[in-house]
Design goal:
This protein has 277 residues and is mainly alpha-helical. It has 2 domains: 91 residues, no CATH class; 154 residues, Farnesyl Diphosphate Synthase, CATH 1.10.600.10. The protein is 71% helix and 0% strand. The chain has 14 helices and no strands.
Amino acid sequence: MDVHQYCQDRAAASGSSFYYSFVFLPQDTRRAITAFYALCRELDDVVDECHERAIAEAKLDWWREEIERFAAGVPEHPATQALFDTPRGRHTSPSLLQEIVDGMAMDLDKLRYPDFKSLNLYCYRVAGVVGEVAAALFGGGRGEDDRAVRRYAHELGLAFQLTNIIRDVGEDARRGRIYLPQDELTRFGVREADLLNGRDTPEFQALMQFQYERAVACYERARAALPARARRDQRAGLVMAAIYRSLLDEIRRDRFPVLRARVSLTPLRKLWLASTT
């Protein structure tokens, strides 16, 4: 099996905005980030597609063991094999990969979050850590820039996850998951039944505007944190940011129709954003 083709097919099939940010990367970097993205898709599918908890837990345990094999240089899965086959990919921190698995496991245990502090831990594991790994694959930060690039990656990952949460409010609610913090639902006068039944009320609009503004602040903090010297290496991340920020703004322009529809950008628009960022 051509493990890199496997990852390429996995990424292309998803139709994700991330795929379009990889198009203009050098081959080694593109292969590494595509393999990492395919790995994340595999992990994400465990919790999204396994309807029996015991099976999902067993699969995540297998992935924990697979990350140990990756660290030892003997991965078995095509995604981890492809990642190990790239110069930067083989140096990916196993502890960060384990953090991502732990984040996915939270979806098996936590269907509600009492406040943003508790949600933030989930976002850190499934998005902030992903951002840190991706930034390292793109080139990381050199010397004094390293800490700033990691801060940028964490903020950008949080911004992406908050955008996903906004986009998928209705879909997630129908799956039994509500990521919007419970105390914020109460503060804005939105009931879980409103989300489950697709009731678009003035209170819901105010809640979503609040979520939008928090996500925008994350994008702004990420951009401010990235040193100018690192912008070239991190161009793919900036492309992702342009696509996701455009999606977020589109959702707001459409008055947050997320209870009944899943807003997306066309492939042509994603390619245009990728080519002009």
